[in-house]
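Researcher: For the annotation table, I need structure tokens for ATP phosphoribosyltransferase. Please keep the output clean. Sequence:
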Amino acid sequence: MQTQRLRIAIQKKGRLSKECQELLKRCGVKFNMMGERLVVHSENMPIDLLLVRDDDIPGLIMDGVVDLGVIGENELEEVGLEREARGEPANYIKLRRLDFGGCRLSIAIDKDAEYNGPQDLQGKRIATTYPQLVKRYMDQQGVKFSTCMLNGSVEVAPRAGLADAICDLVSTGATLEANGLKEAEVILRSKAVLIQQTGELSADKQALIERLLTRMQGVIQAKE
Ligand code: ATP
Ligand code: ZN
């Protein structure tokens, strides 16, 4: 369902929301975030913001439901691999990498365990929210393993006896340390990215996207 207004999906609440809203505002998009609305109309441009869970953003783009989205590369790649595995469309255009949401997806193990490389993970059970990315990495390394899928509290899985190791997002490493773990392998370095659906958009929408990108370039460069 095409609309006249450009639809941009952003995270409603979480680590990407504040900086994402800030970036749009700096690009001159005026809007008022009030209440628990799913859709927020810009007051000065033909743009609607869709406020959703970050997990939903890659699918909304890949299904062509929204025009643009801001999402962490970790989530984008995981959903892409998952959809490919199911034979569903997983296409998108990466318009630009943004200057926030930086983190790494890492495998972590007991801080006292000896570690000499990926082969030490052979036969281990790894707790994660990112089974596809872990599988891609372990397949590349030729290491057999099993997973324990968790959508939260991943870092306590080893202590709770649910898994031998974890693969989770890390920024400072403080959470790992607090749970008696150490980083063994970085499998992905991630940032927030701006993506577009691959369907053909109206000339007006495409022109608006170009305008936003030019402004974004200026905003991000000014900060560097
Ligand atoms: P939602 O309710 O939207 O599903 P969430 O809990 O899945 O939120 P957040 O914790 O808000 O997601 O993280 C969103 C994104 O922020 C991550 O997918 C990642 O790209 C990025 N990020 C940056 N630093 C970190 C970090 N230290 N831990 C987790 N995510 C981080
Ligand atoms: Zn999420």
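Researcher: And a one-line annotation?
Model: Residues 11, 14-16, 53-55, 72, 74-75, 101, 103, 169, 171, 190 surround adenosine-5'-triphosphate (ligand 1) (CB under 6 Å).
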